[in-house]
Amino acid sequence: MSSVNTGLQNVDPVVSDIISRENIRQNNVLEMIPSENYASTAVIEAIGSVLTNKYAEGYPGARYYQGNGIVDEAEDLARDRAKALFNYAHANVQPHSGTQANMAVYLGLLKPGDTVMGMQLDAGGHLTHGHPVNASGKLYNFVSYGVDRESEIIDYDAMLEIAKLHRPKLLVVGATAYPRKIDFARAREIADEVDATLMADMAHISGLIAGGAHPTPSGFAHIVTSSTHKTLRGPRGGMILCDQDYARRVDRGVFPGSQGGPMMNIIAGKAVMLSEANTDQFKTYAHETVSNANILATTLEDGGLRLVSGGTETHLVLVDVTPMGLTGKVAAEALEVAGIVTNYNTIPFDSNPPTVGSGVRMGTPAITSRGMGSNEMKQIGELILRVFENYDDSQILSSIRIDVEKLCSEFAAPGVEK
Ligand SMILES: *Cc1c(COP(=O)(O)O)cnc(C)c1O
Fold it and tell me: In terms of domains, do 165 and 219 share one?
């Protein structure tokens, strides 16, 4: 056991090399996948700690293992900070991911076969909102709502009509590729009309909500689920907030319903993130993320692209690239060659299949974390347009990549070694 305290580079040079190359990549590309971000050095330190060694099945003060006095403090801290930041009576910080958070709520509240209503995947909803290939769609009777064909904004009148027709037990709002604000107040009215529980899945926008750059679901949604690694800049994971009435069912849905031991190192990282997200600096960050998305969107629109829903009110821009004669896949692949990392996506009522898509989804959370602002957004917008105009010219794409790397070198990525 001589290698017990030896570093990764000596113990496993192969994995060590993978990590250092990924470190370089994260420094040298414009990370514009809207669900990605940079966790701080402090968060990374917490998740890389010995707390990973502790088994803590159960909840603070009620564990199935001994020796949990100290890690209980970490979980209590994370729960208290989550409740304070998002203004909810109860928090569960154990879900291993946003998907696990959603499944835990379903397990805690519903019986297999119950009717649930969620946003259609091709309108911007998430797999866990009832897609047939996902457990949610296999276990529950999901019915869906979408966006208006003209405005490409959620059609709340249609949502009400569909709800009246199917009387879901649970109404899920929240999306993964939707650039507009979610009207939680309106969704609650609709839920009340049919006696449904309202669940807000704020995975993408939780950081904007924490920073006051998107309206809060507090006071409207009975239950809120989230990922912790997207706009919140925390460790990869999930969490649930809810009114006190739902606390027991939610907790049981997580453990013993769908998880065993929680990851105490990740929970400590969530606690760190929740304190970082409760600062004036983070408020500024959240607002800049949204204003940056706006500037990017305007630049792209001026250059001849069509913005789904006509614009953005969040961190995310969904562009229809067909006006430039491209498909989403071709466009996103050309962007990657130039060092701009996004993902292709369907757009509402897409005529291309999901494996091709007519859109590219891009976001500003990670580049805003690097400190980039309005000037850089204009510059990046111009670079993206140049990529699209020259998508099949590898020489031009390589020259754009040099501009991208220069820009990246001027703005350090938090938590990523230089
Ligand atoms: C990202 C996302 C999730 C799932 O999060 P994971 O942490 O990837 O499991 C759930 N819902 C929505 C709306 C999301 O965008």
Answer: yes
